[in-house]
Amino acid sequence: DQQVKQNSPSLSVQEGRISILNCDYTNSMFDYFLWYKKYPAEGPTFLISISSIKDKNEDGRFTVFLNKSAKHLSLHIVPSQPGDSAVYFCAASVSRGNEKLTFGTGTRLTIIP
Amino acid sequence: EADIYQTPRYLVIGTGKKITLECSQTMGHDKMYWYQQDPGMELHLIHYSYGVNSTEKGDLSSESTVSRIRTEHFPLTLESARPSHTSQYLCASSDSDSYGYTFGSGTRLTVV
């Protein structure tokens, strides 16, 4: 049973436009959510996180939105840049720093110059 | 600059061989993890450790074993490699103050 789902395996966005990546989860115990970015042949790198006590967290061009009632989170990248082309993984845990992370299957984002 | 190191980056090995994938971190993190990822699939947790002499199996059953004799070192061993073990293996670490994990660059294992 997949507890974290990313239903779009791929997404193409024009450079300069907004990229929106979506993630749904089923476990209501999840309390902390993260986004990771992964280039080929490299390990994932941490991008941004959000705790369930907030509904939005912003860091430069990256904003994560959390809708707890819908069990849905999204990552917005604006403006999108060619270097943003990568696979993005959504992850969740029951608390920050204390539990194992459960990952989604990833969304491959391609930024078109 | 990477604070968690995995070696080798790539490994092609014959069926039946014993292999050890190395993972070391310099951040003093007490928690360490091994994930397995096939192309286009999610990362599956196969082993984790919350400290020295502590190891647990993850959500995905794996024939590999791990050890944690030192805080900084968390090697993964396959006693007899099979083609079904072909995958990417990612090591990670964290502590209670971490924003998620710090991942290594991974080992891409191919068993022929």
Outline:
With 113 residues, chain A is mainly β.
Shape by Cα distribution of chain A: globular
* Principal-axes shape call of chain B: globular
Class per helix and strand makeup of chain A: mainly beta
Estimated radius of gyration of chain A = 13 Å
Task: Count interface residues per chain for the largest interface.
Answer: A-B, 24 and 29 residues
Low-confidence parts of chain B, pLDDT < 50 over ≥5 residues? Answer: none
Distance between the termini of chain A: 38 Å
Query: How would you sum up the major sheet of chain A?
Result: 6 strands, mixed
The ordered string of helix (H) and strand (E) elements of chain A is EEEEEEEEEEE
CA radius of gyration of chain B is: 13 Å
* Distance separating the two termini of chain B: 33 Å
Which percent range describes the beta-strand content of chain B?
Answer: over 45%
Spans of chain A of 5+ residues with little confidence (pLDDT < 50)?
none
Q: H/E series of chain B, N to C?
A: EEEEEEEEEEE
Number of helical stretches of at least 4 residues of chain B: 0
Key attributes of the depicted protein:
heterodimer, A: 113 residues, mainly beta, six-stranded mixed β-sheet, five-stranded antiparallel β-sheet, 11 strands, 0% helix, 53% strand, globular, B: 112 residues, seven-stranded mixed β-sheet, four-stranded antiparallel β-sheet, 48% strand
Structure description:
The complex is a heterodimer of chains A (113) and B (112). Chain A has strands at residues 4-5, 10-14, 19-25, 32-38, 45-51, 56-59, 62-67, 72-77, 86-93, 102-103, 107-112. With 113 residues, chain A is mostly beta strands. In chain A, strands 2, 4, 5, 9, 10 and 11 form a six-stranded mixed beta sheet that branches. A five-stranded antiparallel beta sheet of chain A has the order 1-3-8-7-6, with no helix packed on it. In chain A, β7 and β8 form a beta hairpin. Chain A is globular. The N and C termini of chain A lie far apart (38 Å). In chain A, 35% of the residues are buried. Chain B is 0% helix and 48% strand. In chain B, strands 2, 4, 5, 6, 9, 10 and 11 form a seven-stranded mixed beta sheet that branches. A four-stranded antiparallel beta sheet of chain B has the order 1-3-8-7, with no helix packed on it. In chain B, a hairpin with a 7-residue loop joins β9 (87-94) and β10. Chain B is mainly beta. Chain B is globular and about 40 Å long. The N and C termini of chain B lie far apart (33 Å). Chains A and B meet through β5 and β10 of A and β9 and β10 of B.
